[in-house]
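Quick start: read one record
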Amino acid sequence: MSTKSKTRLLNVRDYVALDTETTGLDTKRCEIIELAGVKINAGETVDTFQAFVKPRDGYGIPSFITKLTGITNEMVADAHGIEYELPRFFEFIGNMPVIGQNVSFDIKFMECGAIESGIDRQFLQACDIMRLSRIVFPDLPRHRLRDTFTACCDVSGNTPDFGKQHRALADSMMTMFCYETMRPYLVDKYGEDPDAEWNRQKRFEAYASYKEFLENVSPTVEEIDESNPFFGSNICFTGKLSSLTRKGAWQEAVNLGAVPQKSVTKKTDYLVVGYTEFSASLKGRPSSKRVRAQELYERTAAPQIVSEEFFMQF
């Protein structure tokens, strides 16, 4: 089961807005102490879920968490453990998309709890309110749930009272209100399928940046060493590079007498692999560029796949 879910820009009318409260930020050492969700159908609330979760024996709630959430050890003393409450919460969610503030955090905790409980569960459709807030309210200094909620109250002219923040059900309801307020702005900007349009625009911006770079680039070295292995070749990069930005890598390729490429093609001579792509490949999640390069290499013995460290030697 995957423990890494990718959020999307969702335009949905049926979903679950959710939140978890935990004893800290580390999934290996901390635990869920409250689960909550609001089920929405056609934009209307149809059901809610809230449950305290008792930490494992010997694990109490830190005082700073009690101060933040108001949840005490006494409040969870008679609660069920995660192995009981998590399946109930998953049943409540069903196959519906989930929406939350920094929702990847909640999903990470729930997926880790699922693994410990022997449950196979993934969240294939998840939308992050914080990400939406950055798009809809780009001028907000911060995009915490309270900040986004206040901005949504301002534009909607409505200030609902959902109770104490940092309690899972109240935060779930605030999340629902924020999503319902921001969704029309998101659709107005990116259309009925905002995730696809956002990605299309980002690809276009990346291509435009690359095209502009090629039109204006020139070597920044006094003389190109034509004996280097990359001279006269086509080079593509994949993964995050530890020592260079992507434009910086393109410039270094030009300084070596090579042509940087945006994607892997039959003309690609080298694919330079950054450290994140190397780690992902070891875990069985190679990038599309690497997969394409390997397919081409099996047929034509090109491109050569080399590390960032090898590239930087020259």
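The chain has twelve helices and nine strands.
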